[in-house]
Specification:
By secondary structure, the chain is an alpha+beta fold. Helix content is 36%, strand content 17%. The two termini are 28 Å apart.
């Protein structure tokens, strides 16, 4: 990825992690619509929400709301237009404006106070910080869903990120629906090599290591997200 692509990739994770921080009840997937033409972080609603939410943060295009606008939403009150260009996102002085725009557009309630950090929201906040650290590094860092979405693609490629991470394989095997649960693991990849898997229940899985609870790291870091992410980076890059 060139710098422009890296920045869009990073900002897709910022928008996703901020929306999930404000609304822990929504889910995040990685999808590749159009037979792989697009590369999206896809935000979807769960059964706990009354309506339907479907937002594609397309790193090879724009931000699209597929679930329709809320009847109460007035786009004219915003200095943002849908579909949202990544250039428009990067121009915002208020870095939380685009997540709030998307929140209002799909009718998600505005939190009256910051929701408590959950293991799931902590995972996505850590992912964003990890990628922020690496923006200008020579290696290429990505975070990919362990469930590769090849729907409509002419490929059967499977990265099998679980192959070298025993604790993640065991956690997956204990699930009643391993295929579905696979989407709740996110692989931290550097130059094509999986360094770790982050499970949405707040567990860090590393090759040849015992699992680590992110919430414990967070508490030990006085609930400072930057310190927590630095500890995670040290763990996943330590020589084995």
């Amino acid at each position: 990825m060139n710098f422009s692509d890296r920045l869009i990739y990073l900002q897709s994770w910022w928008v996703a992690s901020e929306l999930i921080r404000r609304h822990p009840e929504i889910d995040l997937l990685e999808t590749h619509p159009g037979g792989g033409q697009y590369d999206c972080l896809t935000i979807v609603s769960t059964h706990s929400l009354p309506g339907t939410v479907h937002i594609d943060l397309n790193r090879k295009g724009r931000i699209h709301i597929h679930s329709g606008f809320s009847p109460r939403f007035d786009e004219s009150k915003w200095d943002i237009r849908h579909p949202v260009e990544w250039s428009a996102e990067s121009e915002q002085i208020d870095r939380r404006l685009v997540p709030r725009f998307l929140e209002a557009a799909v009718g998600l309630p505005v939190p009256t106070e910051s929701p408590l950090t959950t293991p799931k929201t902590l995972v996505f906040r850590v992912i964003y910080q990890l990628l922020l650290f690496t923006l200008n590094e020579p290696q290429e860092w990505e975070v990919q869903s362990a469930l590769f979405d090849s729907d409509g693609m002419d490929t059967d490629w499977d990265p099998n990120y679980f192959a070298d991470v025993t604790s993640a394989r065991l956690a997956l095997a204990q699930s009643s629906n391993p295929n579905q649960q696979q989407s709740h693991f996110w692989a931290v990849v550097r130059d094509g090599r999986c360094l770790a898997l982050l499970q949405e229940n707040g567990t860090l899985h590393r090759p040849d290591s015992e699992p680590t609870e992110l919430m414990s790291l967070y508490d030990d870091s006085h609930r400072d997200i930057l310190r927590t992410a630095m500890k995670v980076r040290q763990l996943i890059t330590a020589p084995t």
